[in-house]
Design a protein that fits this description.
- The complex is a heterodimer of chains A (about 260) and B (about 625).
- By secondary structure, chain A is α/β, with parallel strands linked by helices.
- Chain A is about 35% helix and about 10% strand.
- Chain A has two domains: about 5-180 and about 250-260, Rossmann fold (3-Layer(aba) Sandwich), CATH 3.40.50; about 180-250, no CATH class.
- Chain A starts with a helix and ends with a helix.
- With about 625 residues, chain B is an alpha/beta fold.
- The longest helix of chain B has 20 residues, at about 510-530.
- The chains are: A alpha/beta (about 260), B alpha/beta (about 625).
- At the A-B interface, α1, α2, α5, β8 and α6 of A face α2, β2, α4, β7 and β8 of B.
- Chain B: Pfam families: APS_kinase, GTP_EFTU.
Chain lengths: ~260, ~625
């Protein structure tokens, strides 16, 4: 087995654990590269099916290409799509810096969906290598009734034994891609032929490396217009993936505050 | 928000195949302040494994705090860690050395964070144990070394840090090295290597120091490059724990990850404890080349012929290579709970995908962390290490713990679903019945003589059931009926015991267990005098009643006074249910604590209907039959 085979096998194991132990269960589908890989892995785990709903928490500020992609692949992949909407930014914590405050809408939208559908499990495509606080995450990360992430009091997780919900109102965030690196995602996309929004590929010397809301996401300078060129670029880059995501950089702890409150 | 960020500064081009290699996880452990985080920061910087953004962040953070470059800030990417100056949780950093990929796992040194450390350390292939050469091994050095042993990490590199404080003196370094070697030797651990270094200054980390010309061994990066990769598990006999069974489109799939060995279409496999055999009819894949085999590490879905339905937790294995099967298991333990562990506590034992109910039957020894000796003890302290015996209600199939495989990786989970300990399973425990085997004051009169004089055999009938089920009333009536027939009979009643013999006990699981144990021991002594003993005790846990049966032996009968919860609660003669419902009584059986009904009692008295007298007559008939008076 090569590295991608090992990552795939571990993710399939995690998804099968989630499907067995957490009901009701749903997968977040942000339409980005990572969550497309995640949907693909679910189909690997369940022999071509995704036996639970996928959720798009819509900020209504995504790129038009992303909405097109969503509609096309919901049909092609036979997905049970749940849509959720986010409250206006005016309702968010005014002490957050502007971009983080805007991103907080998604936390609130997600919280609404979890409550509406009484979810016990939410599968999310975060990775350890994206961001310092995400490096601290568990594969099965319990959230209390307030959805807060208790960084100081995370359960032990070893030998593939994961936390299970033990209190009314709590849910588990399941992270099947936690061990993947950005370059693993791209190599897997290349190997498996997984479709992507073409914003990831360069036009006029710019491309998006990470996709969020269009007003708080910036493209990078790049001429990588094919999968092979993107991979070649990543092999040599020295900036971090989320450099284009404004909320990560506003203050030292803005992103951590978002995550503690329930952001992905 | 319209500025364009500059990406890509090209450093050395990396060989394309590098990223296809699996990364080797390396855990870095050691006593707090011995320099782990500094070592990692320095290592990543010296080997050019830092993203530009991160270096800039460290420099900026250090500047804000008026410090020189503080390497450890790299890892302490959480605000709360920086404020406290300690790493609160393990973190993982990808790291490349030449043509090899690693993941560095940083584990915190603070002892109350052992559970975070185990989270990071459990999958590592090798460990770097950082020891401050000036201070030598400290409590957490011993604790972490112990943990490395228990989770089965055998390749250990000892980094003797801060040797600048010893002026790079060869003799003084050699002395520290000897003491650490002795310490690890006590645990049966043999370090692969000692590297004298100064992480802060970069000596012998990624470049050879000219301050230690006497040291000619590998520097740290060379030592890491020489760490052996994980052994292949494909050559071992097959173990496939069933994770789930799916039915899609009229086809049944058995899903699971192959922990070792391989499967091929056509192989015959034994299925779990029930032992039926089926053939692998197909290995199913989606969007992957079809192959008629699969190897260790793969998550597979197979179909079986005949189409038997295994349960989650069943092991699939070749008929020629059976796992062990026993109800009493000897295990090591690393205990993660903040309260001590006592004999008699019950847990779920998770073992791969299986779960079994187990009770801690004995604490055989506890490791004293001052000197790593094993001592007898009545409890395992918080975050302690021990050897224990687990007793299960039914036989468990398992393979003994073997480093480098998933065999025997037991995990204990409490009633609140919290993971409270890791339990590498060692093997079957010595045959039980220790209580029976030892007769310190072997009677001068034997059982046959007593039987002749009394005219009946000895017996212990153990009445179990909910509070208010009618156990005591039935026992007292039966006592009269038996006595009137000339039977030497006595009653051990739960309430009576608790007023005297067991007045020191509460209702925690451990105390209930002890209550049962004492009742069983007293019943055994009375039965050895030839009496019939009727025990009336809620004894809610199957494992505790199994213990009583072991203590008493062949003359033990379990009698289930089967009264439903609603009837008991309706009676509520002592007002206890009402109080329990109001939360005034904790751990009340049937309300806030479980009652595990007997599966195969020798006698079941259906006591929802009918009078206590009728039930007592039923019990009396049963006892008379058992003691040769029927």
């Amino acid at each position: 087995m090569d590295h991608l085979d090992q990552l795939e096998a571990q993710s399939v194991f995690i998804l099968r654990e989630a499907y067995r132990k957490l009901k009701p269960l749903a997968m977040l589908w942000s339409l980005g590269k990572d969550s497309n890989v995640m949907v693909w892995l679910a189909r690997k785990a369940f022999l071509g099916r995704v036996p639970f709903p996928v959720m798009h928490v819509d900020t209504e500020k995504k790129f038009p290409e992303m909405y097109q992609f969503r509609d096309e692949y919901t049909k092609k992949w036979n997905l049970d799509l749940l849509l959720g909407y986010c409250p206006p930014v005016e309702e968010m914590d005014p002490t957050l810096p502007p971009a983080a405050r805007s991103a907080a809408r998604k936390t609130a939208g997600l919280a609404n969906m979890i409550e509406t559908h009484k979810l016990q499990g939410v599968i999310a495509g975060i990775r350890r290598d994206e961001q310092g606080t995400r490096a601290k995450e568990r594969v099965f990360s319990p959230r209390g009734a307030s959805h807060k992430w208790d960084i100081r009091n995370q359960p032990p997780e070893f030998w593939d034994q994961y936390a299970t919900p033990h209190e009314e109102g709590m849910h588990i965030r399941v992270h099947p891609l936690l061990a993947w690196r950005e370059i693993d995602i791209w190599r897997y996309i290349e190997r498996e032929g997984i479709p992507l929004v073409d914003l990831y590929f360069a036009k006029n010397g710019k491309r998006y490396r990470s996709l969020g809301d269009k007003d708080i996401t910036n493209p990078i300078e790049s001429n990588a217009s094919t999968l092979a060129e993107v991979i070649a670029e990543l092999e040599t880059t020295r900036t971090s993936e989320r450099a284009g995501r404004a909320m990560d950089h506003e203050s030292e702890d803005a992103f951590e505050r978002l995550r503690v409150a329930g952001y992905l | 928000m319209s500025e364009t960020l500059t990406a890509t500064t090209v450093i050395d081009p990396i060989d394309r195949d590098v990223a296809l290699e699996a990364a080797t996880p390396i855990v870095i452990v050691g006593h707090v302040d011995h320099g782990k985080s500094t070592l990692i920061g320095r290592l990543l910087y010296d080997t050019d494994n830092l993203e530009d953004g991160k270096v800039a962040q460290i420099i900026e953070s250090s500047k804000k705090r008026g410090l020189a470059i503080e390497w450890s800030f790299l890892l302490d990417s959480l605000q709360i860690e920086r404020d406290q100056g300690v790493t609160v949780d393990s973190t993982r950093l990808p790291f490349r050395l030449g043509d090899r990929q690693f993941v560095i796992v940083d584990a915190p040194g603070h002892r109350q964070f052992l559970r975070n450390m185990i989270t990071g350390a459990a999958d590592a292939d090798a460990a770097v144990l950082v020891v401050d050469a000036n201070e030598g091994a400290q409590e957490q050095t011993r604790r972490h070394a112990m943990l490395l042993r228990l989770i089965g990490i055998r390749h250990i590199i000892v980094l003797l840090n801060k040797v600048d404080l010893l002026d790079f003196d060869e003799q003084r370094v050699a002395a520290v090295r000897r003491s650490v070697t002795d310490l690890l030797g006590q645990l049966g651990l043999e370090p692969a290597l000692f590297v004298p270094a100064s992480a802060r200054d970069g000596d012998n980390i990624a470049s050879r120091s000219d301050r230690s010309p006497w040291y000619t061994g590998p520097i740290l990066t060379e030592a890491l490059a020489a760490v052996p990769g994980a052994d292949s598990r494909a050559g071992l006999p097959l173990r496939l724990p069933v994770q789930d069974v799916y039915r899609f489109d009229d086809k049944r799939y058995v899903a699971g990850r192959i922990e070792r060995g391989e499967i091929r279409v056509g192989d015959s496999l034994t299925i779990g404890a029930q032992g039926s055999v089926a053939r692998v009819a197909s290995i199913e894949r989606w969007q992957a080349p079809q192959r008629d085999f699969a190897l260790a590490g793969e998550s597979v879905a197979i179909t079986l012929e005949p189409d038997v339905i295994p349960d989650r937790g069943d092991l699939l294995f070749p008929p020629s290579s059976k796992p062990l099967k026993t109800a009493r298991i000897r295990a090591r333990l690393f205990w993660l709970r903040q309260e001590p562990l006592r004999v008699g506590e019950s847990f779920r034992l998770r073992l791969a995908t299986a779960e079994h109910q187990v009770t801690v039957a004995s604490i055989d020894s506890v490791v004293r962390l001052d000197d790593l000796t094993e001592q007898a003890a009545s409890e395992v302290p918080p975050e302690g290490f021990a050897e224990i015996t687990l007793a299960a209600a039914e036989a468990i199939q398992f393979d003994p713990f073997t480093p480098g495989t998933a065999d025997g990786r037991g995990v204990l989970v409490d009633r609140n679903q919290r993971i409270v300990g890791g339990a590498p399973l060692l093997g079957p425990a010595e045959v039980s019945g220790e209580h029976n085997a030892i007769h310190p004051s072997g009677g001068a009169v034997d059982a046959a003589q007593r039987r002749r004089v009394k005219g009946h055999g000895a017996r212990v009938v153990w009445l179990t059931g909910l509070s208010g089920a009618g156990k005591s009333t039935i026992a007292r009536h039966a006592e009269q009926l038996l006595f009137s027939q000339g039977v030497d009979v006595s009653v051990l009643d739960g309430d009576t015991l608790r007023m005297g013999l067991c007045s020191d006990l509460g209702f925690s699981e451990a105390d209930r267990h002890e209550n049962v144990r004492r009742a069983a021991e007293v019943a055994r002594i009375l039965a050895e005098t030839g009496q019939v003993v009727v025990v009336a005790l809620i004894s809610p846990l199957a494992a505790d009643r199994a213990l009583a049966r072991r203590i008493i032996g062949d003359s033990f009968d379990e009698v289930f006074v089967d009264t439903s919860l609603s009837v008991c609660e309706g009676r509520d003669s002592k007002g206890l249910y009402a109080a329990a419902r109001e939360g005034k009584i904790a751990n009340f059986t049937g309300v806030s604590a479980p009652y595990e009904a007997p599966e195969k009692p020798e006698l079941r008295i259906a006591a929802d209907a009918g009078s206590a007298e009728t039930h007592a007559r039923e019990l009396t008939e049963f006892v008379l039959g058992k003691i040769g008076r029927g």
